[in-house]
Specification:
The chain has about 325 residues and is of the alpha/beta class. It contains 11 helices and 14 strands. Strand 12 and strand 13 (about 265-270) form a beta hairpin.
């Protein structure tokens, strides 16, 4: 997915929020193009949930200008609510009702005709792989099934923008990956914009078109996953050789800074690189000029964990008190 030249689905400038003397959001700027997945990445306490609550009209802000789905957040709050859906960390599922009944209840709340509501409920149960459990009480659902039902209920209102606040927290790895597939499908099949908050680095890396790193109420970096990884030193191009003479020749040709590993089972070079196409092309052109054969090549870049640790001095696993 790419951002292209889409109009912003969400834009916020100078967004601020405090609780007493606790500054939670310190003038952050956000621009989310339509039809993309935008991730706000940060540890507990960074201000992610507060941001979602403000953008979805659940709480007020202390400062800043915000537009959601083209509407001013203050002057057109009802229009904003009609354009969005929100799925939080805790599912809004009625466990006394079946999955189908939960969906039909949402259809009634959105004033859909009864026949259209039943048809939509059936479609969503199929889409979210809940057909077999459709007529069982939601109290019998697993955590992953409950999250899927919650997200399906959000779609009943046909939102243009969906806020997902840490949607996979507490799920096992298999259920988390299942949710990732569903989230990707929201953009591809329903043409919605997804605003995703997460403390899982892999989740942001897998899903987001753009990522904003939020720490102590400030956005400390923003860009694609690849762009963020290039902010951190340590990336390199790994070259593999089957011939020691080629290894030595390549090390001489590529110059200082190249790390040489020369053993019976490891004939490799690590060439410092930002992971970009230009640096990769420069290495390949040099090897081609010197007529040096390479057995294998891979590009190693820092992980988002490296990025976050470098930018903030701590990992996303660190716990704080305000979300």
């Amino acid at each position: 997915m790419t951002n292209g030249h889409r109009l912003p689905a969400i834009s916020a400038q100078g967004l601020r929020k405090s609780y007493g003397d606790k500054l939670v959001l310190d003038g952050i700027d956000i621009v989310v193009p339509e039809g993309t997945i935008y991730s706000l990445l940060g540890p507990n306490g960074a201000g992610k949930t507060t941001t979602v609550q403000i953008l979805s009209t659940l709480i007020g802000r202390d400062g800043g200008e915000v537009r959601v789905a083209g509407h001013d957040l203050s002057a057109e709050a009802n229009a904003v609510r009609q354009a969005i859906g929100v799925t939080g960390q805790f599912a809004a599922v009625d466990e006394l009702l079946t999955g189908r009944e939960n969906l039909l209840l949402m259809a009634d709340l959105h004033h859909l005709p009864r026949k259209a509501g039943r048809r939509l409920a059936t479609e969503l149960l199929e889409r979210f792989d809940l057909v077999e459990a459709a007529d069982k009480p939601a109290s019998t659902y697993s955590g992953g099934m409950t999250r899927r039902l919650d997200l399906a209920m959000t779609l009943v209102g046909d939102p243009r923008i969906i806020f997902l606040d840490e949607p996979t927290t507490g799920l096992d790895p298999r259920s988390r990956r299942s949710m990732w597939e569903i989230i990707r499908g929201l953009v591809d099949e329903y043409s919605v914009t997804v605003f995703l908050t997460t403390q899982y680095l892999e989740e942001a890396d897998q899903l987001a078109d753009r990522i904003a790193v939020l720490d102590h109420g400030r956005i400390v970096a923003e860009g694609t996953a690849a762009e963020l990884k290039r902010l951190v030193p340590g990336g390199h191009i790994r070259l593999e050789f089957t011939d020691r003479d080629a290894l030595v020749a390549a090390a001489a040709a590529l110059g200082t800074g190249t790390e040489v590993r020369d053993s019976e089972d490891d004939l490799t070079l690590a060439v410092p690189s930002d992971g970009g196409v230009q640096s990769l092309r420069a290495v390949l052109d040099r090897l081609d000029y010197e007529q040096i054969e390479v057995a294998g090549l891979s590009v190693q870049t820092p992980t988002l964990d490296d990025v976050f640790l470098t930018l903030t001095g701590h990992s996303t696993a660190d716990k704080e008190t305000v979300r």
